[in-house]
Amino acid sequence: MRHEIASVHCAATPLAFRRAAATDIPALLLIEAVSFPTDRMTARNFRYAVTQAKGACMVAVQDGRVVGYGQIAVHARTPNGRLSSFAVHPDNRRSGVARALLRALEDEAAALGCGAVRLEVRRDNTAALALYLRSGYVQFGQYPDYYEDGMTALRLEKRLQKQPKGARTSCFDIG
Q1: Do residues 84 and 56 lie in contact, with contact meaning Cβ atoms separated by under 8 Å?
Q2: Which of 1, 61, 4 is nearest to 28 (CA)?
Q3: Any idea where the domains of the chain sit in the sequence?
Q4: Cα–Cα 20 to 30 A to 31, which of 41, 58, 62, 134?
């Protein structure tokens, strides 16, 4: 896939994307710990996402170090992918990593046959909300009292471009 073989220049050093491996889990846990005070993914969650989940867990790598990750989940009976977790290490924020990683995840979802990506974001996470809105996501709902601390989640969606011939045709044909 394009994002697995072509590096993107970000903050003057190459940024590459690939599927996460089990050996990445310690780095993913670190990013999770410094990014979220509550509602964190566990080692078990990451292990499942990397080894068994339908969809894709991808990492952004810069200077040989995992600096961000995102998890796109796909489910039978829906044409939508779900961005179930997404974070960039604080040292690498505001440098284009999140925007490029989000684009790579959207490309991956489209390649898996998804017609849209949906997600939930904390109402008070203004930086993430701004990223998603600038990237073409629109709000279509909300979940009051969604997070452990009672914060409301905003539900967002982005329609994806159709894939060229030869791409998968549905989210549910993933093995």
Answers
A1: no
A2: 61
A3: 2-163
A4: 134
Measure the CA–CA gap between 159 and 147, rounded to whole angstroms.
Answer: 25
Does the pLDDT value for residue 81 go beyond 90? yes
CATH classification code of 2-163? 3.40.630.30
Q: How far apart are CA 2 and CA 14, in angstroms?
A: 15
d(CA 163, CA 166): 8
Measure the CA–CA gap between 144 and 123, rounded to whole angstroms: 10
Tell me, what's the pLDDT at 162?
66
Single-letter residue type at 167: A
Q: How much is the pLDDT for 114?
A: 93
Tokens of 166: 């030869």
Average pLDDT over residues 96-115: 94
CA-wise closest residue to 61 among 19, 96, 17: 17
